[in-house]
Write a structure and sequence with these properties.
Layout (H helix, E strand, L loop, with lengths): L25 E9 L7 E7 L5 E7 L8 E7 L5 E7 L7 E7 L5 E7 L2 E7 L5 E7 L2 E9 L4 E8 L6 E8 L4 E7 L5 E8 L5 E9 L4 E9 L5 E8 L5 E8 L4 E8 L9 E8 L4 E7 L8 E7 L5 E10 L3 E9 L5 E7 L7 E7 L5 E8 L3 E8 L5 E7 L8 E2 L4 E3 L2 E10 L3 E11 L16 E6 L7 E7 L12 E8 L4 E8 L6 E3 L12 E7 L7 E5 L2
Antiparallel strand pairs: 1-33, 2-3, 3-4, 4-5, 6-7, 7-8, 8-9, 10-11, 11-12, 12-13, 14-15, 15-16, 16-17, 18-19, 19-20, 20-21, 22-23, 23-24, 24-25, 26-27, 27-28, 28-29, 30-32, 31-32, 32-33, 34-35, 35-38, 36-37, 36-39, 39-40
Protein name: FlgD/Vpr Ig-like domain-containing protein
InterPro entries: FlgD/Vpr_Ig-like (IPR025965), WD40/YVTN_repeat-like_dom_sf (IPR015943)
Organism: candidate division WOR-3 bacterium
Length: about 550
């Protein structure tokens, strides 16, 4: 297993330095890789705890095993392994697909063991509380929090081409409250389940029609006591449509994305967004036909606290294979606000996941192919302006892919992934990137004093030093400054050694003890304190023995 730090090369080794703010828009905090002997290991999904511990589920092959196991891994804030839980079924078809942190403080994960669905609960030390096998389910596709000490999970049950959608309510001890199933004589597939602010459940997926010649986009709602409230369809015979992602907005409407095909030719899908009220009534729909009018679809959707809808996916730019990552913003009336596309020389780019963060940035994870697949994380503001793009190209520059799910917490973005290495082949991978750009106006004030410095005392220091924010412009008071900001500490070679956060409003200094983020004592020398804000000058500090 490997953790990698990426710093920025500086050709200045003097006490006074000036560095451009744009160079520090994002920092790769760490990359974790589990490198077992299995050729198909990957991280499928993750969640972050209140203490910023990272819980990841997927598939690994521990020890000398060659078969992948259903796995949960707990990482600390530096990407170090704390605990690993894995379970090997009778066959090699085992993996965790979704994970969440329950209201009771336990971890819940769902996926597949030995070709059937499974849900399990572990504590924060990854000790197994219980496991529930869903023998008639091919897999558990989605899981969400319910009322106090309750969870809901979405399964597809039955055989090939005759699957039904099953919604199950379960308590925190693994006992079933009820199971609701929906289906007819064709294949009904549920892709995602959410719980609305109104307490009801909403499922997005597809419903087979006419002997599976075509599919209908399906959204259904189930009450907390397990009764069907309504079903909404889009498409049908000779008109393929699929719902891939769903979100419940703070305006008490439901938003869904996927694709529709008007039946002219296979592959000519339009990216599709639909808004429904809580009674299943259609409010509006939006179609996006990309530059090549061929194979455009939405893969993930989120609702921003600004009242707008954000979708990522792909659009085709020419022929039937050249695609780009696309991000679209729609207002609550269904009007297009803007379209962003990530353009490279690639022929196979696609956005996988999207999240609207409390700092009013939109983060997108996806895949971008140059010589081979790379993992990309894109940061946009609410107007669609690109803030930064992070690319991860694994050790062998081949076969790196994110999975569906991106999480933002406390300034960091987390992505589960799979990355190829010629020795260990596909590896279970987690990426953590810190966003050091300015936050949005609604989260923090944008009034920034023109004369501000970082005060470091004592300097030089031996055991520890204090870093404090000072205002030199008398036109401003402490109430005018931003609440918090982050800064990085680099050594004289430009290597990142630590990232810290300072609370400006409390005037509380940050104490740096001369160690890196792993707790190792650093040698004597000159170190540079670089804030994430352009109006604050960097500071230098000298560490002596």
């Amino acid at each position: 297993m490997i953790k990698k730090w990426t710093g920025f090369l500086m050709f200045v080794i003097t006490i006074e330095i000036t560095l451009p703010f744009s160079a520090f828009c994002q920092i790769e905090r760490w990359v974790y890789r589990f490198e077992g002997p299995q050729s198909y290991e990957q991280a499928w999904h993750l969640t972050v705890g209140e203490d910023n511990s990272v819980y990841v589920t997927g598939q690994i092959a521990p020890g000398s095993s060659v078969d992948g196991d259903f796995t949960i891994i707990k990482l600390d804030t530096l990407g170090n392994v704390i605990h690993i839980y894995s379970f090997e079924g009778l066959y090699s078809y085992d993996w965790g697909y979704r994970i969440l942190l329950g209201e009771d403080g336990n971890i819940y994960a769902a996926g597949v063991i030995s070709y059937h669905g499974v849900v399990c609960s572990v504590d924060t030390q990854l000790n197994l509380n219980w496991r529930y096998d869903v023998d008639n389910a091919s897999e558990i596709r989605s899981i969400t929090k319910g009322e106090t000490n309750r969870i809901y999970f979405l399964a597809n049950i039955g055989g090939w081409e005759i699957e039904d959608i099953a919604v199950t309510k379960m308590d925190c001890l693994g006992n079933i409250d009820w199971i609701y199933s929906y289906g007819n004589q064709d294949a009904e597939i549920g892709n995602e389940i959410i719980k609305g602010l109104d307490g009801n459940l909403y499922v997005a997926g597809k419903d087979g029609f006419n002997g599976n010649v075509s599919d209908s986009l399906l959204v259904l709602s189930v009450s907390p006591d397990g009764n069907l409230r309504w079903v909404h369809y889009e498409g049908g015979i000779n008109n393929n449509a699929v719902a891939r992602s769903i979100v419940y907005g703070n305006d008490n409407n439901i938003y869904v994305t996927g694709y529709v095909n008007d039946g002219d030719n296979y592959g000519r899908e339009n990216l599709y967004i639909i808004a429904l009220d809580t009674l299943g009534n259609k409010l509006w729909d939006y179609r996006y036909d990309g530059p090549a009018s061929f194979s455009d679809w939405g893969t993930a959707i989120d609702y921003g606290s600004d009242g707008n809808v954000y979708v990522t996916g792909k659009h085709t730019v020419y022929s039937s294979v050249a695609s780009q990552i696309v991000v679209i913003s729609i207002d609550r009336q269904g009007n297009q606000r803007w379209i962003y596309n990530y353009s490279t020389a690639s022929t196979q780019d696609e956005g996988y996941s999207i999240v609207y963060a409390p700092n009013h940035h939109i983060y997108v994870s996806g895949v971008s192919r140059v010589a081979s697949n790379d993992i990309v994380i894109i940061c946009l503001d609410t107007l669609g302006n690109e803030q930064w793009v992070y690319r991860y190209d694994g050790p062998d520059h081949a076969g790196d892919n994110p999975n569906y799910g991106i999480v933002y917490k406390d300034g960091c973005v987390y992505v589960p992934a799979q990355s190829y290495d010629s020795t260990t082949l596909d590896d279970f991978t987690v990426i953590c990137v810190a966003d050091t750009t300015l936050v949005g106006k609604k989260e923090e004030k944008e009034i920034l004093p023109t004369k501000t410095i970082l005060a470091v005392y004592p300097n030089p220091f031996s055991e520890k030093t204090e870093i404090r924010y000072k205002i030199q412009d008398t036109r401003y008071t402490i109430a005018d400054v931003v609440q918090t900001f982050r800064f990085a500490i680099y050594d004289a070679t430009g290597r990142l050694v630590s990232c810290l956060t300072l609370d400006a409003k409390r005037l509380t200094p940050v104490v740096w003890d001369g160690t890196d983020d792993s707790g190792r004592r650093l040698p004597s020398g000159v170190y540079f304190v670089v804030p994430d804000r352009s109006n604050i000058d960097p500071a230098s500090v000298v560490k002596i023995k």
